Amino acid sequence: MTADVPADSETEQLRRQLAEAVDAARDAYRDTTRLIQLLDLLGRPAGSAELIGDMLNVLSDAFFADVVCMARVCGDRLIVSGSCGLPEDDPAYTEGWPVGEAVRRTLATAEPTALHRDVPAEDVPGSVAGLGIRSAAWIPLSAEPYADTLLILFRSLDQPFAVPDLRMLTSVAARLHMALEERERHAIIEQLAHYGHLLARHLEVEPLLDEAAGLLLRLTRADRAWVVTVEGGQGRLRAHRGLTPGIIADWPVPAKSLDDLPACEAGLPEVLKVAVSRENGATALLCAGREQARPFAQGTLEIMTIFANYLGVALTNADLYHALAERATRDPLTGLANRSALVSHLDTLLSAGDPTRVGVLFCDLDGFKAVNDLFGHEAGDELLLQVADRLRGSVRPDDLLARFGGDEFVIVLDRVKQLSEVAEIGARVCADLDDRLVVCGEQVQVSASIGGVLGVRGQATPSAMLRDADAAMYVAKARGAGQVEVFDEDASHRSRDRLDLRAELLLARSRGQLHLAYQPIFALDSRAIVAFEALLRWTHPHHGIVPPDVFIPLAEETGAIVEIGQWVLAQACRQLALWHRLPEGRGLGMSVNLSPVQLHQPQAAERTLDVIRAAGLHPADIWLEITEHSYLRHEVTEYAGALGAAGVHLVLDDFGTAYSNLSYLKRLPIEILKIDKSFVSGVTGPGGGQIDLSIVRAILAIADSLGLVAIAEGIETEDQRTALRSLGCRLGQGYLLSRPLPAAQAGLLLRPRPQLPARAHRVG
Ligand code: C2E
Ligand code: MG
Ligand code: MG
């Protein structure tokens, strides 16, 4: 039997070894299964929150943990951001837990910590304590210094987290960290692109900077964000989020440059600053700060730099728009309001208030031509400048003084009581001007002939008042230099020609005197025709062709424009439907001009759509043009919204000639801008047309940033077409390709087109 003893003990030993091997294999199998499960999760295309949720669930299963959570240290608190095992309303998510010794050690060493049995109470906080925790493990999410996020496992099972467990948890935590960072990077890139788009929509600086501060706060997850600039030796706080009133009250601060700005952020342990660089140097500083020692994520500075670039581009666009607005409303020589600013001011006064209290004085200098001829244009310009100064001194603070053109100035008088008051003010202006001025060293005698009118209820429009004041001025001039003449109410009404023309216009359509001409809108590169613009013509039996600029205002005064406009639309739609039947006419658009009077009609949108559909067209075949000068009431937004929703494309005509405070672009779903021909004719003018070139460039940049299509009007030469093409303008119209033509001739311009250039499309 002695021989059996060794045999028994050997067997026993073998059995033990076998059991150990089986255990080890089972452990290895279990570990491998757990690892596969976890890696599988990391590979799925889930968002960060979903990934964390799934991961904590699997960890809880695989490591028999009652509670698994992810938590971040904020100051002296540990805030739980996700968990498996904690109720949703646990204060750990909001108030957090106090930071215990285990957390401190884990962060300091960047190594996992595991405790078994006597886990100190400070390390098992809040609702977890009631679970009878016997083991716990704290795993840093990344081994980088300052890492502040931990994976924490608590279990009531009386089994320690063994070294292999901790090794596996460390590896899983590192991979989870990488996966989250990757998702974060993607999310930030998407967010940046979206924010860039949001910034580009602002064309005014203050709201732009305000939005930038808000976006910066979110983008950097900062507690405070602010934007500062330096102007005239003063550092200014231009926009901010989260700054305390005390800090705000400290601004402005003396500073020569952005580098020179003092540390206003005292008390904030973490501040990132990035300059917004533009062609003319750095112009603003973006700052983001955190209140507690919670460092910004890696890469935040790069993100801020990209954001600053977006802001730089948006600021440049805003500046360009401002310059454009100035140019559109100011007379470049005198700095006074120009003709279009005058008309829109007058329009606003007449539409908003009592027209019988609005007066107009039309002033024309006497003998100005002689000054020009004798002393040259420079002297002429200097004289105009001095006259402008004189007039500035003569007008009342609420009046608007404008240069109408050449040597003509117009004063719009608000709140005058009667025509005699208009005459009195006219006489005063006349007397103030009647003097000798020294121009280029020469003594010059100046005076002005002045005509005045007062608005008439129900009749007054800017064009009618200006015409009557102009007529009165001629009567004054006929009486000699330095005279004032006013039109009384009846006389301004008895303006025979106009009355006759108005009456005849009412019958013009039924007499077959109206017809449409069509001018092609074409792609500037291929010359393919994309659409036609319908332009109304009136052939009068005695006066011949009456230009639309003359008869459309008359039709607007009588209201006949509503019926005429409806007829124009129906004609144009019928013509387009005919062209659509030709193979070369497929996909062609039709642009139709709208009068603001039409926009203010009840059910205007339904009636417009009815006409389009009755012709068998889709609303998207039609482009409707609204001029930038038109005075729009609020209902128009609804009208335009309904048409836009149905697919009709809205065009802002004559863009750049009036400054409507961007309200058109904001209020109406405009998709297309027509660059006015006054700019187009200047792009190749003498001296390289630098001013108009930069204006056109600015309009194109604005169109681009708002996702609008631009069309250049009035292209008359090949040079203009080339210049516009090189600026990136893709569509145009003008005498170069074709004048407006009768339908039959216009149809001959159509030729088979292999492919249409991109049509206007709606943007978000
Ligand atoms: P618009 O809508 O800006 O039309 C463009 C004007 O520029 C047209 O003048 C056209 O003949 C002219 N034009 C086109 N190409 C060139 C070019 O290369 N050089 C020059 N110098 N001019 C060019 P038109 O036909 O005299 O019309 C004047 C305005 O009358 C139009 O300006 C539009 O505001 C208005 N209008 C015309 N038809 C209608 C209509 O049916 N309804 C309404 N409400 N307004 C209309
Ligand atoms: Mg037009
Ligand atoms: Mg136009």
Automatic annotation (TrEMBL):
Any Pfam family matching the protein: GGDEF
Coiled-coil intervals, chain numbering: none
InterPro entries named in the record: Cyclic-di-GMP_PDE-like (IPR050706), EAL_dom (IPR001633), EAL_sf (IPR035919), GAF-like_dom_sf (IPR029016), GGDEF_dom (IPR000160), Nucleotide_cyclase (IPR029787), Rev_trsase/Diguanyl_cyclase (IPR043128)
Secretion signal span: none
Domain GGDEF residues, every copy: 356-489
GO molecular function: cyclic-guanylate-specific phosphodiesterase activity
Domain EAL: 498-754
The name this protein goes by in its record: Diguanylate cyclase (GGDEF)-like protein
